[in-house]
């Protein structure tokens, strides 16, 4: 869901950069030598996940997993996404330079907010936990595609059709991410019941 | 479901990498130049100049030693909806009619705008990959630090690069063991559950690994920053290159302004 350079208008670029900068600053305040490695490893995991493709009919979609990142890292998701997005731009040519802020904000902001919102209930057994897990996975992708659409829509009337198509084409992706998220968190709960109490989260 | 073109691509991004013909220049120059180049690409309004910048950017990639096949794959990797958007532009931008299909009018103005976007995106990304993507990760980190990027963010960048290969390898091993048990990905609940379990297991292993890494790093006295190991050497040819490219870029931008 990377936007490339040359599309968005200057105010949208500045707004995205502002959000990304603020989020990263908040995240960096909690980043120290104890949680640095886990943030780096999860940032790498997030990068790798974006290269995993799942078939969707005749085509395929790649995973985003920003919801899980937001749940596990909180505000640290901002620096983690910034690093992953910068590396993707520099090494793979995904996205661009001046759109980096917008791309980071679009992916990280929904992840952090939904993660914080759902964290109190998501580890519960039963329907509540499952519902929260699904909302986290599907909601983050959907919110990201909405933000991408908004970035496009605010950049000019000519992009309105593209903006609508962006959201529509990400509906199935959101659904898949929702199911994935439920399965991933169910596995974590079963394999590692004491996960919540582990030291790296404090 | 595969790492696709990318698994091959990041083998070259290990901690040491040959910067091709551009290796002789100071990394600080390359970082500044990539930003100046991108700025110039965005600022010029003529399509011909944007095309020229795209050609210059791609040539820099070749000079920097990025293999041509890999380069083409990366340039082609513009995501689907971006290409779709460019294809849509002729129909959504009003202007003189280029052709019409079933009542839909494609405009010259829209086509023009779409081509501009493609050229801009290609030029910026090519410049970035040639000038910054050719730096070894540790040098990139130190260069960013020398421009005032917070040390902890730089440390995070270097750790992320370090663990890309490790996490990627872990993913491939788990994926292979699924394949050995005759797992075939499709569009169904079973696939999503299985891949979800793969992701969950991957996360747990990553976190466990991070704990071991943290312990090992603290044993060695890590306090949140990396020592600076790469000696920057700004030489005469760096000054010459900096002045020459600044002159050219500013000149082109000024000249293209109405």
Task: Report what the structure shows.
The complex is a heterodimer of chains A (202) and B (258). Chain A is built from 7 helices and 2 strands, in the order ααββααααα. By secondary structure, chain A is mainly α. Chain A has one domain: Arp2/3 complex 21 kDa subunit ARPC3 (Orthogonal Bundle). Chain A is globular, with a radius of gyration of 17 Å. Chain A starts with 9 loop residues before the first helix and ends in an 11-residue tail after the last helix. The model of chain A has no long low-confidence stretch (mean pLDDT 91). Chain B is mainly alpha-helical. Chain B has 2 domains: 21-135, no CATH class; 149-229, no CATH class. Chain B has 10 helices and 2 strands; from the N terminus they run H-H-H-H-H-E-E-H-H-H-H-H. Chain B has helices at 5-9, 27-43, 47-63, 68-75, 80-92, 108-131, 137-146, 151-180, 189-219, 236-256; strands spanning 97-101, 104-107. Chain B has a two-stranded antiparallel sheet. The longest helix of chain B has 31 residues, at 189-219. Chain B is flat and about 65 Å long. Classes of the chains: A mainly alpha (202), B mainly alpha (258).
Question: Which keywords apply here?
Answer:
heterodimer; A: 202 residues; mainly alpha; two-stranded antiparallel sheet; B: 258 residues; 2 domains; 10 helices; disordered N terminus
Secondary structure layout:
The complex is a heterodimer of chains A (202) and B (258).
Chain A: H1 10-29, H2 36-49, E1 53-56, E2 59-62, H3 66-73, H4 77-92, H5 100-118, H6 126-153, H7 160-191
Antiparallel strand pairs in A: 1-2
Helix pairs in contact in A: 1-4, 1-5, 2-4, 3-5, 3-6, 4-5, 5-6, 6-7
Chain B: H1 5-9, H2 27-43, H3 47-63, H4 68-75, H5 80-92, E1 97-101, E2 104-107, H6 108-131, H7 137-146, H8 151-180, H9 189-219, H10 236-256
Antiparallel strand pairs in B: 1-2
Helix pairs in contact in B: 2-6, 2-10, 3-6, 5-6, 7-8
């Amino acid at each position: 869901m990377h936007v490339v350079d040359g599309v968005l208008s200057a105010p949208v670029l500045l707004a995205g950069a502002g959000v990304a900068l603020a989020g990263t600053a908040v995240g960096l305040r909690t980043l120290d030598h104890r949680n640095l490695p886990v943030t780096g490893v999860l940032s790498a995991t997030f990068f790798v996940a974006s290269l995993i493709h799942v078939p969707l009919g005749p085509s395929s979609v790649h995973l985003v997993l920003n919801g899980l990142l937001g749940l596990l890292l909180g505000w640290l998701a901002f620096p983690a996404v910034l690093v992953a997005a910068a590396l993707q731009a520099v090494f793979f040519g995904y996205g661009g330079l001046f759109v980096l802020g917008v791309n980071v904000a679009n992916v990280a902001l929904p992840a952090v907010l939904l993660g914080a919102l759902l964290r109190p209930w998501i580890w519960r057994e039963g329907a509540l936990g499952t519902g929260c897990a699904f909302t986290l996975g599907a909601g983050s992708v959907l919110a990201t595609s909405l933000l991408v659409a908004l970035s496009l829509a605010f950049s000019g009337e000519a992009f309105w059709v593209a903006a609508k198509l962006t959201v529509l084409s990400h509906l199935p992706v959101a659904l898949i991410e929702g199911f994935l998220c439920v399965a991933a968190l169910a596995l974590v709960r079963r394999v590692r019941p004491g996960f919540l109490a582990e030291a790296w989260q404090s | 479901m595969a790492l696709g073109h990318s698994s091959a691509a990041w083998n070259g991004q290990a901690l040491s990498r040959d910067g091709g013909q551009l290796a002789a220049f100071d990394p600080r120059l390359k970082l500044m130049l990539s930003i100046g180049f991108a700025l110039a690409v965005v600022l010029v309004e003529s399509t011909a100049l944007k095309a020229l910048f795209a050609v210059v950017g791609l040539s820099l990639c070749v000079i920097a030693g990025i293999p041509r096949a890999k380069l083409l794959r990366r340039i082609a990797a513009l995501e689907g909806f971006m290409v779709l958007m460019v294809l849509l532009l002729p129909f959504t931008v009003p202007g003189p009619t280029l052709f019409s299909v079933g009542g839909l009018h494609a405009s010259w103005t829209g086509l023009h705008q779409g081509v501009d976007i493609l050229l801009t995106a290609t030029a910026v990304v090519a410049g970035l990959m040639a000038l910054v993507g050719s730096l070894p990760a540790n040098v990139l980190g130190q260069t960013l630090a020398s421009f005032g990027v917070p040390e902890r963010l730089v440390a995070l960048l270097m750790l992320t690069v370090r663990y890309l290969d490790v996490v990627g390898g872990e993913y491939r091993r788990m994926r292979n063991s699924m394949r050995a048990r005759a797992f075939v990905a499709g569009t169904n609940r079973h696939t999503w559950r299985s891949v979800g379990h793969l992701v969950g297991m991957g996360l747990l292993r990553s976190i466990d690994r991070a704990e071991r890494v943290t312990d090992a790093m603290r044993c060695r006295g890590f306090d949140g920053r990396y020592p600076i190991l790469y000696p920057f050497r700004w030489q005469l040819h760096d000054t010459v290159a900096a002045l020459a490219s600044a002159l050219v870029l500013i000149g082109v931008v000024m000249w293209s302004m109405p």
